[in-house]
Design goal:
Layout (H helix, E strand, L loop, with lengths): L36 H6 L6 E2 L11 H12 L13 H11 L6 E4 L1 H13 L5 E6 L4 H8 L3 E6 L8 H11 L3 E5 L11 H10 L4 E5 L3 H4 L13 E6 L12 E4 L2 H10 L7 H12 L1 H24 L4 E3 L4 E5 L3 H10 L2 E2 L1 E2 L9 E5 L3 H18 L5
Parallel strand pairs: 1-11, 3-4, 3-5, 5-6, 6-7
Antiparallel strand pairs: 2-8, 7-8, 9-10, 10-13, 12-13
Bound molecules: pyridoxal-5'-phosphate (PLP).
């Protein structure tokens, strides 16, 4: 039996607020977060492929589950606040990354790091240059501070544009530059020496490099922290480590920046299970390597499959691909009917027709492609 789309009942018009939000928040448009979780839960018989938020498609390393289970099974003290500032985890992460612990801040997801950066460094009308199109939620954090957001669009959204960014930096002279590297959703990636050129060209701009997907790309500009005082790198356990539900990420920056972030940061905001899980995840690098390889092989499979059908597929260095369809919104809806949840990016400036698929394991990808094939067959006009 064909699946029906779930319909959302019409909502009554919201009541006017008794008290207005403060200053710039009045003009902020909420981030349009659409989660497929409700649909997934409403169809327990169907094996879902949740490929819409670039999460890992498998649970994290078994060591994460073991460590959390062991904690919960013992005298766990969930009634106590967690280790302040995640100092235990900082020590492990510092050993792992080679970045001294004074240059690290562990946060409640990397979103929390981005928000803390905006709270600390941005005020009304401060200019922020954003290499767009990119991760949307950062814009909410910046807008909440009343910042003046200036987008820089490369002539081709899938190609890097170092000269264009350098020109924009010189023209806009922003207080902050936000660069997602590799970019979500286009996959554009700047090498460390190119990021260095941006840092050197604008010593008074805080350059925030969001490395949410750097494990997949196998590249990072962390080493530039040794040379540049205007660099911040943010990372997360949500993607390659498969821990999005636990909410844990981190920022690495020169010591004075971390000190300033700590002025506003709540030292107890990273929950105890996330801290324990992250420490266990770091210990299982074999699991990480396995998952990165699966994603790489699955990307190759997608590329080959779409190429054979003459469909444009942009493979990124991260854990997603961008695929162009004639009728993108329809394809996305039909795929959801079949339990494949992907993200329609076709309305984003310059990404007309593109749909983003998060990439998981090879086995999962075979199943996803079987369902994509079913949808494509429906698109073919009937022959007489
Ligand atoms: C570029 C980028 N940065 C940050 C995030 C948020 O990550 P976290 O789960 O660590 O808050 C995302 C999530 O999709 C992202 O794509």
């Amino acid at each position: 039996m064909p699946h029906r789309r779930l319909r959302v009942a019409p909502q009554p018009a919201p009541k006017p607020a008794a008290i207005e939000p403060s200053g710039p928040v009045r003009d902020v448009q909420p981030y349009q977060a659409v989660s497929s979780l409700d649909e997934i839960h409403a169809r327990p018989q169907q094996v879902p492929h949740k490929l819409d938020w670039n999460e890992a498609t498998v649970p994290p390393s078994p060591r994460v589950i073991e460590a959390i289970t062991a904690f919960l099974g013992n005298a766990h003290h969930l009634n106590w606040y967690p280790v302040l500032n995640s100092t235990n985890l900082i020590e492990r992460l510092s050993a792992f990354t080679g970045v001294p612990h004074e240059r690290m801040l562990i946060t409640n997801g990397s979103d929390d790091a981005l928000n803390t950066l905006c709270t600390t460094y941005l005020g009304v009308d401060d200019r922020v240059l954003v290499a767009s199109p990119t991760y949307q939620h950062f814009l909410v954090f910046a807008a909440t501070r009343g910042a003046d957001i200036v987008h820089h669009y490369a002539p081709d959204p899938f190609e890097k544009d170092l000269d264009g960014l350098l020109d924009a930096l010189a023209r806009v002279r922003p207080r902050m530059l936000y660069l997602v590297n590799p970019n979500n959703p286009t996959g554009v990636i700047y090498e460390a020496d190119e990021v260095a050129a941006l840092l050197a060209a604008a010593p008074e701009t805080l350059v925030v490099v969001d490395e949410a997907y750097s494990e997949f790309a196998g590249r990072s500009c962390v080493r530039l922290l040794q040379t540049y005082s205007n660099l911040v790198v943010t990372r997360t356990f949500s993607k390659a480590y498969g821990m999005a539900g636990l909410r844990i990420g981190y920022a690495m920056a020169p010591e004075p920046v971390i000190r300033d972030l700590r002025r506003v940061f709540n030292p107890k905001s990273v929950n105890v299970l996330a801290q324990i899980g992250a420490m266990a995840a770091l210990e299982d690098q074999a699991w990480l390597r396995w998952y990165l390889e699966e994603v790489d092989d699955a990307k190759a499979l997608y590329a080959e499959w779409f190429a054979a059908r003459g469909i444009e597929c942009r493979v990124t260095p991260a854990n997603y691909i961008m695929v162009r369809f004639e009728q993108a919104p329809w394809v996305v809806r039909r795929l959801a009917d079949l339990g494949v949840y992907v993200r329609d990016r076709s309305h984003v400036p310059r990404l007309n027709g593109f749909v983003r698929f998060s990439v998981g394991t090879v086995e999962q990808t075979h199943d996803v492609l079987a369902r994509v094939g079913q949808v494509l067959e429906e698109m073919v006009p009937p022959t007489c």
